[in-house]
Amino acid sequence: MEKTSMFNNIFLVMEDITNKVMKSKYNPFYYHGALPQFIMYILFLSGLLLFAYYVPTIDNAYFSKNLVNAYTSVDYITEQIPFGAVIRAAHRYAGDAMVIFIVLHAIRVWATDRFRQYRWVQWISGVVLFLMVMFIGQTGYYLIWDERSLLLTRMTVSALAAIPFCGEFLSHWFMNGRTISNLTLSNFLFIHIGLSFSLMFALWIHYVRMTRPVITPPPALNYALLGMVFILVYLFPLTETKMANMATQPTMSEVDVIFLWPYQLLAAVGEYPFWIIMLLLLVGLCIIPGNIYGAKPVEAAEVVNNKCVGCRLCSLDCPYQAIEMVPAPADSRFKLLATVKAQRCSGCGVCVGACAFDAIDLPNLEDAQVTAKIKELIEAS
Ligand code: HEM
Ligand code: SF4
Ligand code: SF4
Fold first, then answer.
1. How far is the CA of 242 from the centre of ligand 2 (A)?
2. pTM of the model
3. Fewer CB near the terminus (10 Å): N or C of the chain?
């Protein structure tokens, strides 16, 4: 059995079981891409509320009583603002949930073989989205400006400085100067918020080749997800940490494995092996959409020009925007003619079903055969 189809079967079994437990309309497997998108809205809203009270400075003025800095402003949100602790914890756990759902979504599209060839744009933009989300989450941890933030900042600075040729520049960019200062935290806040908004642009690229991406889970699923985040908030309230003190050298203690695993790796292997492993991981993720797992070449749909009446139905139904309507030749009775962009076609056959004029076919597959295949699949499901 082919590697991907074995995983596909595992997913089909899990989906089938879920369909027996709940209505298929609410099956979370059918919203694997939409769930991280919904969590992003929770993050934007909770982040906005936190931003209202956050002060991005590291000033610790000998830890005086009325000190206002990043750490004390986060403490103020947690202790003084009504539901501040809940919003903070919801922001953190929603971030964790987003990463988990993104990874599940990526595994799902990989396992069901929906990532190759014409879908490479979705895959590569997905990898970029994943990196962005990871970096946004990590900068969130620097913003608290507790001992862990100081340790992570110092580790990042030394990891960046170790990069040949541009290391010094990158570490200075990261600190927004030559040392850690108030400007460093402004930079972290800028990265955290700026990259969050940039997710919208990256998502546009992610969706641009899909005609009808499923981006909204049903409200019941959204409420359930929100409920789960609040259960986590209740079960695992955020614990108090110590303010960063530049004169001390904090060590690695409790870290969030979801966002901060790269730091555990960095601490374990050191800077150079860390960058080599990261680079290999990135290259590995980017070349997956190539044909390395033995992709079957897709045979694109073909239009029978003299039968096409230019009704557009195929182009409206094609899920991958692979059909373009072009002006029909001068001797035609019709205005438009369908043409298939072969490099985008998945050979799914939707257009064959959409055309009432037998004017579009899959090579080596008569439309009667396509209809029979669809019936077979419906009966099997
Ligand atoms: C912020 C993170 C992400 C969000 C919100 C997101 C969202 C989505 C959505 C809504 C779809 C359409 C699904 C459908 O209509 O069934 C989709 C498709 C897709 N995503 Fe993502 N995605 C994210 C990250 C990723 C990552 C990390 C990867 C892989 C590395 C990835 C790879 C893909 C692929 C290949 C498709 C096309 C699947 C198909 O054509 O059926 N995405 N994504
Ligand atoms: S087979 Fe038809 S509907 Fe499917 S991707 Fe190709 S052109 Fe679009
Ligand atoms: S549905 Fe058929 S007739 Fe209509 S534009 Fe497409 S190929 Fe032509």
1. 58
2. 0.87
3. N
